[in-house]
Design goal:
Structural class: mainly alpha
Shape: globular
Strand content: under 5%
Order of helices and strands: HHHHHHHHHHH
Helix content: over 70%
Number of strands: 0
CATH topology of the largest domain: MetI-like fold
Largest sheet: none
CATH superfamily of the largest domain: MetI-like
CATH architecture of the largest domain: Orthogonal Bundle
Number of domains: 2
Amino acid sequence: MPGKVRGKSGLMSRYYEYFLLPVGLAGFLYLWEYLSGFYDPFILPSPRLVLERSLEFFNQPQLFFMHFLTTLGEAGGGFCLGALIALPVSYFLAKNPVLERLLTPYFVGIQAVPIVALAPLLVIWFGFGIASKVLVAALITFFSVLTTGIAGLRSTDPRLRELLAIMGATKWQIFFRLEFPSALPYIFSGLRLGGALAVIGAVSGEFAGAGKGLGYIVNFARGSFDTPLLFAAIIALAVLGIGFYLLFFIAEYLAMPWKRRR
């Protein structure tokens, strides 16, 4: 019995933050409900009113999933495109410091322009369909994955690289057995950030012009001064961003068993 008690206690001590998530959510909803009593529903609607308005607007399940899946597809497609381009480019630039210094001013200049300013331009070039939203999401994902990828590949201990080279390892063996594993924490950090930013990029593209998606709902609710519906769309976007974050958190946990807690 004592051993079992210690085992349960150890489990709680290791994952206590996850057990606290429902408690934190309940506290947040209670505080929200309490504060909403001091304001007009137009300013701060209560959680109950937001839920009722959501059910009223999304009275047909397929309507909700159409908007949600549209933004999910745009963000997911843009993320995959941006990450697949950024990862090999980060390796190439990490191995060529001169080229990196040459291109850095251009990267910084593009990053300095707010994505909401670039989104209308991409919509003009590529139309109001899904392609422009995917490209906006890909653009904002690209730089987050690129910078962390370069930092991760340069974090490899040069002495270990030299040791493997002395032992006769090829360039690709050094990459797959040393450089890539050591860069994984940085890469997954960039992927988690890129997943959240991809949602921002997709919604920014929808703001510039779209007939469906969660960004379209935000525009519709804003134009009709429907604050409860606006809150509902924001919550759906938050759930989408958290989903991307958790996906790569789990992927990191599975891909790096040496980093797991003991």
